[in-house]
């Protein structure tokens, strides 16, 4: 039975440029890129992904996941609207989820990560879990059911997880953290017809 070797705990997600009250369906063209910020303005972020520089456009629909820094900015500027360059600067490793619109890369989600990681963009699917086991998860996304294989390298990010949950991550099956009815986003690789999840982020827990 496959278990999760690596469990990343998302203890707090702060959304700016609009309240995060639900999950917006991702289009079939949704992608993600991981790299190092080389430039940032109030409306754009340029990221070096491998040998390529990619520019992402940021607007009121972009979610910034910044955790603790957000409270510090809000305390210092209670009447100011936070901007992307309040939280990110050149040199930061980031993960950007984006979609292509009118020839431009629109950032859906920007998150600071521990390292620049792989240069190969993954695909992204967002939707509701219809079934889950220790080795597979099926998600209703883009009007169809998509089944993803789970490996020991699959990361699971769970909002508000406890220390006890984190301690159990080394040998705990996926079914402990992900359940039918949960709304999730899945970063995955599609190779030889097999979709393998590299990361599952639980957006809304089915209660």
Question: How would you describe this protein?
Answer:
It is a single chain. This protein is mostly beta strands. It has 2 domains: 8-13 and 121-204, Copper binding periplasmic protein CusF (OB fold (Dihydrolipoamide Acetyltransferase, E2P), Beta Barrel), CATH 2.40.50.320; 31-112, OB fold (Dihydrolipoamide Acetyltransferase, E2P) (Beta Barrel), CATH 2.40.50.320. It has helices at residues 68-76, 84-87, 163-167; strands at residues 8-10, 31-40, 44-49, 52-57, 63-65, 93-101, 104-112, 122-132, 136-141, 144-149, 155-159, 183-191, 194-204. A 5-stranded mixed β-barrel has the order 2-3-4-7-6. It is elongated and about 45 Å long. Mean pLDDT is 74; it is low at 7-28 and 160-169.
Summarize this entry quickly:
The chain is mainly beta and 207 residues long. The protein has 2 domains: 8-13 and 121-204, Beta Barrel (OB fold (Dihydrolipoamide Acetyltransferase, E2P)); 31-112, OB fold (Dihydrolipoamide Acetyltransferase, E2P). 9% of the residues lie in helices and 45% in strands.
Features:
elongated; five-stranded mixed barrel; OB fold (Dihydrolipoamide Acetyltransferase, E2P); mainly beta; 207 residues; 9% helix
């Amino acid at each position: 039975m496959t278990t999760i070797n690596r469990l990343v705990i998302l203890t707090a997600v702060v959304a700016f440029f609009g309240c995060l009250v639900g999950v917006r369906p991702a289009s079939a063209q949704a992608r993600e890129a991981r790299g190092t910020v080389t430039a940032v303005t109030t409306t754009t972020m340029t990221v070096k992904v491998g040998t390529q520089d990619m520019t992402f456009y940021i607007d009121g629909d972009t979610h910034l996941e910044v955790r603790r820094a957000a409270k510090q900015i809000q305390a210092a500027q209670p009447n100011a609207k936070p901007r992307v360059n309040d939280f990110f600067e050149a040199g930061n490793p980031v993960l950007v989820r984006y979609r292509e619109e009118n020839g431009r890369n629109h950032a859906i989600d920007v998150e600071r990560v521990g390292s620049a990681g792989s240069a190969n963009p993954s695909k992204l699917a967002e939707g509701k879990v219809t079934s889950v086991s220790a080795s597979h998860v099926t998600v209703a996304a883009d009007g169809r059911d998509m089944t993803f294989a789970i490996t020991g390298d699959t990361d699971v990010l769970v909002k508000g997880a406890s220390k006890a949950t984190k301690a159990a991550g080394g040998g705990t099956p996926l079914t402990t953290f992900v359940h039918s009815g949960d709304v999730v986003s899945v970063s995955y690789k599609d190779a030889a017809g097999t979709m393998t999840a590299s990361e599952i982020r639980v957006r809304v827990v089915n209660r």
